[in-house]
Design brief:
Number of domains: 2
Number of helices: 5
Strand order of the largest sheet: 4-3-6-1-2-5
CATH architecture of the largest domain: 3-Layer(aba) Sandwich
Radius of gyration: 18 Å
CATH topology of the largest domain: Rossmann fold
Strand content: 25-35%
Number of strands: 11
Order of helices and strands: EEEEEHEEHEHEHEHE
CATH superfamily of the largest domain: Nucleotide-binding domain of ferredoxin-NADP reductase (FNR) module
Shape: globular
Distance between the termini: 28 Å
Amino acid sequence: MIHSINWQIATISGIRVETPTVKTYSLTLPNWSPHRAGQHYDVRLTSADGYEAQRSYSIASPPEQHGTVELTVEKVGEGEVSGYLHDIATTGDRIEVRGPIGGYFVWDAKSAEPLLLIAGGSGIVPLMAMLRHRSASATKGPAVLLYSARHPEDLIYRDELDAMAAAGDGLKVVYTLTRTQPPGWGGFTRRIDTAMLAQVAGPLGMAPMAFICGPTLMVETAANGLIEIGIAANRIKTERFGPTA
């Protein structure tokens, strides 16, 4: 659709705090169009003197949600757009957006293949759209999420993910906390490696559809690890962020 790539003015209709550094923004769109799980929107800010700052943010909401989209945004260092959204933007404000964008890193619940999702930090966002799409579609095929974060408070959507895992519809959620862990922690306590991938992905067999999203080094390590354990490269889709993304 032509209008899907044009800039439009969205209204921030809701803001939800996810973690100390992450918020989800609900955007009401005058020209809403359907998206696919895994796509993103561009957000553009323009100052009075004409200076522009632009950033891409993954859609967190499922395709089944109509009229609005949710973008989950991590506040990053000196990030101009994320800083504005976190420190200045409020409900009712209007911002310029363009989307949905992207056709490679997407998943459809009609797929009958086992699903393997691997996330690092805020890389969980497009994968969450996939999981929400999966739940809304009542899909019961086998699926595994491996989610790596530094600290327990950094796990975005933790309560919702735990509820999804408890629903008994074939989804297993596995966490690894690489820096600190709460008392009685039963998950992994190290960075993602080949042995971890073999243990987590093993029950899905050798032909799952794998999606990996996170910092560049984590994505490369996970993708190479999946290939090492026998998953074909053409079954692995990656999306990365960071200095070398």
